[in-house]
Specification:
With about 325 residues, the chain is an alpha+beta fold. It is built from 12 helices and 9 strands. It binds 2-oxoglutaric acid.
């Protein structure tokens, strides 16, 4: 227990048995850690061959992006020129689908957000020398109105991120900065002081660090990890992408998979960004995460039917799973 909120130990015990194949004993331990700290690192999660093929495809896509007209590559002002993004990763090649579908990663995600959770967004972030620290934030800020609906500390997480280290993650090259235990704080950075996203992040972040030290006795940590590791942080956890302060060195590359509960809208509109034909060729676990399964509460049908039907032959395996799940839920 920390800061007045119980770690939901019963959830840990009940949900450690994932049908996605994560080793049970490890899952239970990792879940305890994530509920206690607000984040957990899964080491050696992705093998070198898959990392290499994802990196090679990402290099191709960045090269194509660089050739595009400046208007097309222009970044939003707050992102600055020292970083680059690929979005809609799942639609960019089977390598990314394989990365997303790693059983140990999905096992943890579904243990926390439920088996009907959704992929909210999938992006690659490359950070180059001179990049500033992002504004310290929480990802569940996306569900605005939480002062009324999702008052902190939230009893159940609304979302989480799984960030895959595509290269070694080093503090001086801008690895993720996280505030341990902050998912259980009543305050989020924006309620301590609303940020001005257009302004320099440094002064705001200094203010947040001082506030956390003074009021919670907490210092931020840098999540250093080897390529192939994955850090999962909860939607309520305070964090930022760090500053790239090293005078030289490799690009910091991270694949960021954002997940939300099945009852929420996805940040990146997966149904608009990926055609049914594309989705029909994807692994079942990925089809499910895109939204071709209804939520446990019955959200997400199409034409009054199971959305997996839209995938034709390619959706048959998922449809069979969905039918079994629905029958189980109805006690049949
Ligand atoms: O780059 C990171 O480690 C964190 C990125 C992040 O939090 C964001 O883009 O909102």
């Amino acid at each position: 227990m920390k800061n007045g909120q119980e770690v939901p130990a019963e959830e840990v015990a009940l949900k450690a048995h994932s049908p996605y194949g994560h080793a049970d004993k490890d899952s239970k331990y990792l879940l305890e850690v994530v509920y206690r700290q607000g984040y957990v690192v899964l080491t050696d999660c992705i093998d070198a061959e898959l990392l290499a093929s994802v990196n090679a495809r990402a290099d191709e896509l960045y090269a194509a992006q660089a050739k595009a007209t400046p208007a097309e590559t222009e970044q939003p002002e707050s992102d600055g020129p020292k970083q680059a993004f690929l979005t809609n990763l799942v639609g960019c090649g089977p390598q990314f689908q394989q990365l997303l579908g790693q059983p140990s990663l999905i096992g943890m995600v579904t243990s926390i957000l439920g088996e009907d959770c959704l992929l909210s967004s999938a992006s690659m972030r490359d950070v180059h020398g001179g990049s500033e620290e992002q504004v310290i934030h929480t990802d569940d800020l996306l569900y605005a109105g939480r002062e009324d609906w999702f008052k902190r500390p939230v009893p159940r997480q609304l979302s989480l991120v799984a960030a895959v280290a595509m290269a070694d993650q080093v503090a001086s090259r801008g690895t993720t900065v996280l505030f341990p235990g902050s998912h259980m704080w009543e305050e989020s950075p924006d309620t301590v002081q609303a940020p001005n996203f257009g302004a320099d992040s440094a002064a705001y972040n200094e203010q947040m660090r001082n506030w956390a030290r003074k009021n919670k006795g907490t210092d931020a940590i840098d999540v250093e990890m080897k390529a192939g590791s994955v850090v999962i942080w909860l939607g309520a956890t305070w964090h930022a992408g760090g500053a790239y302060t090293a005078p030289s060195g490799d690009t910091r590359r991270v694949a960021i998979f954002n997940f939300c509960r099945g009852i929420f809208r996805q940040q990146e509109n997966q149904m608009a960004g990926i055609t049914h034909e594309q989705a029909a060729d994807m692994p079942k676990a990925v089809q499910r995460l895109l939204g071709y399964t209804m939520s446990d509460t019955g959200l997400g049908y199409s034409g009054g039917q199971d959305p997996a039907i839209l995938l034709g032959e390619g959706g048959k395996a998922l449809l069979a799973d969905n039918t079994k799940r629905t029958a189980r839920r109805r006690g049949k």
